[in-house]
């Protein structure tokens, strides 16, 4: 009888584990998002990342400092991205800036899946 009770208890614990506490869902699965990780290997200039339909006249959707990494979480899907380096400079004495850009990649197509970490190096 004691063995039978133990058997039933084991079945109850087993079913409880698989229906509640043992299941876990990643936030990226619920949100259907992925992460784009970008490494800027340039030693002097900031890299600006623009996703589809962004204003390329301003700062990027993600700005990565020289010799650094940055990441942005986006909904899963296809993107036509645009990457460029800000090669301009500002004079701290006058506050005037010279705006100059170097195109790195124009219309780079990326496909981002849910929970994916997509790494790009420039």
TL;DR of this structure?
The protein has 122 residues and is of the alpha+beta class. The protein has two helices and nine strands, in the order ααβββββββββ.
Explain the overall architecture.
The model has no long low-confidence stretch (mean pLDDT 85). A hairpin with a 6-residue loop joins strand 6 and strand 7. With 122 residues, this protein is an alpha+beta fold. The strands form 3 sheets. It has a 4-stranded antiparallel beta sheet with strand order 3-2-5-8, with no helix packed on it. The protein has a 3-stranded mixed beta sheet with strand order 4-1-9. It has a two-stranded antiparallel sheet with strand order 6-7.
Architecture blueprint of SSEs:
Layout: H1 2-19, H2 27-31, E1 33-40, E2 46-50, E3 62-64, E4 68-75, E5 77-86, E6 89-90, E7 97-98, E8 101-112, E9 117-121
The termini sit apart by: 69 Å
Q: How is the biggest beta sheet arranged?
A: 4 strands, antiparallel
- Strand arrangement within the widest β-sheet reads 3-2-5-8
> Using only CA atoms, what is the Rg?
24 Å
Q: What is the H/E string? A: HHEEEEEEEEE
| DSSP summary, beta strand count | 9
Which tags fit this structure?
122 residues, alpha+beta, four-stranded antiparallel sheet, 9 strands
